[in-house]
Protein: PINc/VapC family ATPase
Organism: Salarchaeum japonicum
Amino acid sequence: MKLVPDTSVVIDGRVSAGVESGEYADATVIVPEAVVGEIEAQANSGRSTGWDGLSELQRLADLADDGDIDLQYVGDRATEEDIKRAAAGAIDAIIRDVAVEHDATFVTSDIVQSEVAKAKGLDVQYLEPLDEEAGALDIEQYFDESTMSVHLKAGVVPMAKRGDVGDITYQEIGSTKLDVDTLKEYANEIVDTAKRTDEGFVELSEEGMTIAQIRDMRIAIARPPFSDGFEITAVRPIVKTTMEEYEFAGELKERMLERDRGILIAGSPGAGKSTFGQAVAEFLDDNGYVVKTMEKPRDLQVGDEITQYTELGGSMENTADSLLMVRPDYTIYDEVRKTDDFEVFADMRLAGVGMVGVVHATRPIDALQRLVGRVELGMIPQIVDTVVFIEAGDVDTVYDVSTEVKVPEGLMEEDLARPVIQVSDFETGRPAYEIYTFNRQVVTVPLDEAGGSSESGVGNLAKQEIKREIQSATRGPVEVELRGQNTAVVYVSDDEISHVIGKGGGRISEIEERLGISIDVRTLDELPDTPTASGADGSGSAEPQGEVVTPDITSRHINIPVESASPGDTVEVQADGDYLFTATVGRGGDIQVSRGSAIAEELERAIDRQERITVVAND
């Protein structure tokens, strides 16, 4: 009996095991030099598979010395180029050629190699891969029971995030700086283990970045040039919770069981969003719902009954299409970040699937605002009806989201009635925010404790819109003073009054009808000497508050750099102290306004008038 083993069975020790069991007694074992070269290369790079293969070759040599087998090494060694192209099948082809040349049985535990060999007419013995339990990894020495994540980088002492949920600190856990060789040994062990055991898998493998899941650990391995140094980050959950451990647990459970919901779980990094999402998933599963997850990477710690899906063909949209065929009752989407994610979340929700999305946000309302502009405004309450904000590992705020056709708070005219998204406190039922379209803009207006509009909300909004409409009819300065909820006084230069009023009052009447506000037009000389209209000395504009910024105007956008607020924060943009618009700071630390929009035109006019542009963070 002549055998040609490939690299997979040599690494697994299957040939010597077969000899010792008697299956391969007195066999001629022909080992291609290409196998030896591949195993040697793996051992030189510190991979455990290489050392396992070398041990098997030594056992075969001992069996040959004892006369149990005839051992031969044949063929040419694999070149460095062949080893680099091993994943493409270069070495496999060399090994198959040896089996053909010696008319030997080809032995492999690689299913693809087996099928290719059969197609080429070889006598093939396929051995099922050994199921191995993943032993303790070397990086696990850095974990203790309070460690959430370990951060290892070449040239830096080991670091870790440790503590309780909501009270995590980033701290040194060693005194000796790590070297590249040590990190490479850790990385090779991680990848080999992920590939060889049922307890792990490789989630992502790209040039410069590998992400593996082994048991409850998600491990990211970054290499130059993708990163500036060799780095390994291992994350694992430090707690697993149930719904009963959270504030409002009873009400939330009842709400989810009542009917399929659209829920956003929001919070800052490390607040415990995914931990709560895992608790929700297992609660729904325990109550007879079909629950799936959409994750990249997959790291929620859920029971085997809940199938965890990742990107299909590099797209969550493809995953969603497949899930719609599976028809889950609820899908946990961890995490919803990009526009594509929000669109997939919305599509699945509108298709009737209960959706629970995990979103980064620093305030509860920010999670809902991230849908604005990504989906049609009127559809938001059909997509998301509940916002759960997690802080320090517990439920801090719950919002109920609904829609109603009404006059927004602070506006009085009946013809201003429109669809208004009401965001209410789940516990008290008191409205906290209103979201609606006002003069072609989507605005989010905070309400005070009595349920009315806050001073910085509708008042600033009304002044902004009045000023914008008047400035469309004049080139000079414009000041606006609100006298009531539906009355305003506009001050313009003396020679602009007739142009603003229009022939027979036609122009100002059109503006009044459009805004639903009665407007009295006066000259700037009649402007009261008040803090809102002038400085402390009675001359000029109010001293602008907040961060003074310099907008950058490009062909398509106006970019406003912001240093005083973090990405995701909501801020007001002002010109010489007058409100222009409210915006959310983008991930790049700036605000981007599309040119041609009403907001952009107003901003450009303010820049042309050399008004001071400031950004004021909302409290």
Q: What stands out?
A: The two ends are 81 Å apart (CA to CA). The CA atoms of residues 547 and 615 lie 5 Å apart.
